[in-house]
Design goal:
Blueprint (H helix, E strand, L loop, with lengths): L3 E2 L4 E2 L20 H10 L2 E10 L4 H11 L7 E7 L9 H18 E2 L6 E2 L3 H5 L2 H14 L10 H9 L15 H11 L10 H6 L11 H14 L2 H10 L5 H7 L1 H8 L9 H7 E3 L7 H22 L13 H9 L8 H6 L2 E6 L2 H5 L4 E2 L2 E3 L4 E5 L6 H14 L3 E3 L1
Parallel strand pairs: 3-4, 7-8, 8-11
Antiparallel strand pairs: 1-12, 2-9, 5-6, 10-11
Helix pairs in contact: 3-5, 5-10, 6-10, 7-9, 11-12, 13-14
């Protein structure tokens, strides 16, 4: 049983596993699919790790509820309930939660250039054990159908795998802290006179030599090392969380194989083409009038998605742009290309067509699509969705008004 998005509205015309030790398996791992198959197979499907949450501030409330679970372990199947919604989680709600939370984690706990993130220095988050929680959530996302956290910088990933600072790390790209980057820039452009004025800041970074122009390179190296070393406690907490399902052990044994899950490589983001190739329309018999109308609807969907990819569709208030990824998330609960081999094989978005909404609801002026996210299905009331401008308006309104799972 699962939930339906709450957008089937009609307007009457009158009203307008605890931590796994990660022992090496006997078989050899050859691909990222082998890793994902292994950790997904270690999920305890007989138990539930329950998260009850509102849609307001999903990240912070999600982290808090995650840490409050004392009677169960995140090695169990994640089961998500949104307050005030009737949807029962058979997969879609879990994926929607993970999609939102992983995106929130990237912005909240990491900094640096896009897809080159390093942990943000925060003693408050460290003292609250939040980086360990973040590691657990990322492991659960990989094992239970959520998105991959492919936003780490290579050196951050390297440290997570090995627990050591590699010499290759010691370059300015390792520094995301704005003040320390400014200090590096000031040192590199300093004169004999101005570098003396930077002495206190330089010495605070652990440099113990002469503050002078000939020692510029050594000073910069000391600042970079200071920036990296102070992140070690955050990185170690992340490593603790990533021990879930033995994931950290697999990362250590097969760093090259696991790297695409954490470091961005080829572009695997959801685009219009991916959504269209995933669509499985349930068409009427060829040659019938209904078949022709349904083909027209498919053309409308294709145009809608490519327009969304180029410009984004927005509501009348200019909020909540629709992209191919958010459109996919609305219908399926996930806004990412499926990772788990078992899900990739059978992934499809089913399009159904309702030609008889008057028989269902009587006389009315407009009704909206029905989304059944767990079944990855959207049903279009075709009588109300022609021509294209009307299709676009109704679909956009349905998306904006129908984010909750309010029907079972």
């Amino acid at each position: 049983m699962c939930g339906e998005r709450d957008q089937h509205v009609r307007l009457d015309e009158k009203t307008d596993m605890g931590h796994n030790d990660g022992k090496a398996m006997e078989r050899q791992f050859e691909s990222v699919d082998d890793v994902l198959d292994t950790i997904s197979g270690r999920v305890d499907v007989e138990k539930r790790f329950n998260i009850q949450i509102s849609r307001t501030n999903i990240l912070e409330r999600g982290l808090l509820q995650w840490q409050r679970q004392k009677g169960s372990s995140p090695t169990a199947t994640l089961n998500v309930t949104f307050f005030g919604e009737a949807g029962v989680d058979t997969g879609a709600l879990r994926k929607e939660f993970l999609t939102e939370v992983v995106a929130g984690i990237e912005g909240r706990f990491f900094e640096g250039p896009q897809q080159q993130r390093i942990p943000r220095y925060s003693l408050n988050d460290l003292d609250s054990d939040l980086y360990r929680t973040v590691g657990e959530i990322l492991a659960v996302s990989l094992a239970q159908g959520g998105p991959a956290p492919a936003f780490f910088s290579p050196w951050t990933y390297s440290y997570l795998c090995s627990g050591r600072i590699n010499q290759k790390v010691l370059n300015s790209d390792s520094v995301a802290d704005v003040q320390l980057r400014e200090l590096i820039d000031q040192v590199e452009s300093a004169t004999e006179h101005s570098i003396i004025g930077l002495s206190d800041e330089i010495l605070n970074c652990g440099y113990t030599g002469n503050v002078s122009i000939p020692n510029k390179d050594t000073i910069v190296r000391s600042i970079i090392l200071h920036a990296v070393l102070r992140l070690q406690p955050m990185l170690e907490q992340l490593r603790e969380g990533l021990q879930l399902y033995g994931l950290l052990s697999l990362m250590s044994q097969y760093p090259d194989i696991c790297q695409p899950l954490f470091v961005s490589g080829e572009d695997v983001k959801v685009n219009a083409e991916f959504v269209m190739t995933s669509i499985l329309p349930q068409l009427s018999d060829k040659g019938t009038t209904r078949h022709q109308v349904e083909l027209e609807m498919m053309n409308f969907i294709q145009d809608f998605l490519y327009e969304a990819e180029d410009h984004g569709h927005v509501d009348k208030d200019g909020l909540h742009p629709i992209t191919p990824a958010t459109f996919l998330q609305w219908i399926t609960g996930q806004g990412h290309v499926p990772l788990l081999p078992s899900e990739k094989k059978d992934f499809a978005v089913v399009i159904q067509f309702n030609h008889d909404c008057s028989a269902d609801f009587g006389h009315h002026s407009v009704c909206y699509p029905v989304v059944t996210a767990c079944a990855k299905t959207i049903t279009l009331p075709v009588r109300h969705m022609r021509p294209y401008e009307k299709f676009k308006n109704i679909l956009t309104e349905a998306f904006q008004l129908g984010q909750e799972f309010s029907n079972v």
